[in-house]
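subagent[fold] <- orchestrator: predict structure for attached chain, return tokens only, no commentary.
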Amino acid sequence: RAVAEGMRFASRLSVEMLGCDPSVGKATDSLLDSLGLPAIPWTVNPERLFKLMKGDKKVRNGQVRFVLRNDIADWEVCAVPDETIIEHLTAWCTAKERLIQKNDGKIWGQ
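subagent[fold] -> orchestrator:
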């Protein structure tokens, strides 16, 4: 489930970094949901999560790398600037927190 959560996050980064159409992210969410991998109903401090990411195996020369998509079946490995990651993590965690509170501990009707 953690890998699926990372795929959801990377889909959103793909929109900003590569100009991927947001519908590709929605298709990813739908596919993951249909495979029994719904969004994880938890959140964490974005700065703490960023520090954990910086220690991940995908880090090269101090930069976190993600598999990002231009479109369905068209992807590339990209180093993402720290500021972009922090900005997106903050928005991601805030949005998830709101959904969890609004839906009694669930996300998107799980």
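orchestrator: received. Logging for downstream: The radius of gyration is 14 Å. Residues 82-102 form the longest helix (21 residues).
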